[in-house]
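From the methods appendix. Each design record in this collection lists the tokenized structure first, followed by the designed amino acid sequence. Records were kept in a plain field format so they could be parsed without special tools. The example shown here is representative of the layout used throughout.

RECORD:
FOLD TOKENS (294 positions):
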């Protein structure tokens, strides 16, 4: 068993070999913080009503740490509403959302962002009048230069922090192959470059988990392959992803597991092969399952 204890304000891993010692530790220690969890996200019986319309109807699922989890379903299945609810875009009707062991159900989006839960949008929203570099540099929260007085009283500290953030932004641009458009305004980028910039802005926040809303939409095949490659590389480095996507090739080749929603409910989840061969999925997407070869 692995436990985390608070040691001088920092969490430390403690491995305990026997059940009896673990029970003793659990009962006696005043420093126990939390048991190790393999889940980055847990959604429990999520319901979201808009007036008389129930967009999400009691859906539950989990996203394990270190996975690329796909979320698919026909139009109107409730995928985007679920995404927005998790991110704190609006209050939910009922249910619970647990992120990295913390109940974030009542939190608005800016607070979920601060906890490391970051989302991108189907239609990228860069600051059109700012350069790619500036779009990235503005992301880190709590910058000293945001305070009027720091610019007068602590100009050296402000400048040093800005240079550190600039260096990090350059590393992100190099990783995403955006360095050649560093001084280009965000509004002038191609659709694929905007998607990469969205991903870059997410990375600048040092996230625990990134939710991608249709990263392949409107992207040419060359840049799409590049986006997929970068997602896979980031995942190998330990970053967790939850992805909504209508491009089935992308989902089937990149994601494991895959969650399937229909009519606001979780229909099933499994591997790519399990999803492709599930009659309920065919029914949801095609409106019926072919019988006897017809």
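DESIGN:
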């Amino acid at each position: 068993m692995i436990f985390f204890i608070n040691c001088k304000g920092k969490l430390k891993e403690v491995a305990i070999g026997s059940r009896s010692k673990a029970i003793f530790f659990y009962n006696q220690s005043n420093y126990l913080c939390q048991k190790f969890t393999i889940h980055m996200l847990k959604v429990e019986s999520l319901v979201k009503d808009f007036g008389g319309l129930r967009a999400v109807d009691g859906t539950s699922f989990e996203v394990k740490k270190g996975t690329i989890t796909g979320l698919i379903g026909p139009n109107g299945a409730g995928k985007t509403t679920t995404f927005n609810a998790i991110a704190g875009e609006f209050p939910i009707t009922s249910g619970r959302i647990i992120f990295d062991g913390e109940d974030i159900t009542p939190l608005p989006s800016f607070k979920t962002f601060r906890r490391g839960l970051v989302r991108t949008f189907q239609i990228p929203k860069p600051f059109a009048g700012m350069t790619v570099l500036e779009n990235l540099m503005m992301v880190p929260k709590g910058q000293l230069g945001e305070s009027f007085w720091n610019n007068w009283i602590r100009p050296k500290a402000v400048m040093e922090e800005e240079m550190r953030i600039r260096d990090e932004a350059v590393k992100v641009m190099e990783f995403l192959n955006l360095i050649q458009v560093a001084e280009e305004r965000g509004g002038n980028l191609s659709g694929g470059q905007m998607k990469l910039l969205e991903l870059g802005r997410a990375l600048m926040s040092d996230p625990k988990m990134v939710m991608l809303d249709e990263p392949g939409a409107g992207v040419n095949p060359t840049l799409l392959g590049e986006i997929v490659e970068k997602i896979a590389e980031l995942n190998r480095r330990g970053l967790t992803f939850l992805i909504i996507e209508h491009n089935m090739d992308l989902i089937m080749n990149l994601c494991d597991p895959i969650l399937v929603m229909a009519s606001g409910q979780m229909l099933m989840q499994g591997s790519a092969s399990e999803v492709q061969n599930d009659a309920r999925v065919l029914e949801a997407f095609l409106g019926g399952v072919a019988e006897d070869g017809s």
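APPENDIX NOTE: The chain has a mean pLDDT of 86.
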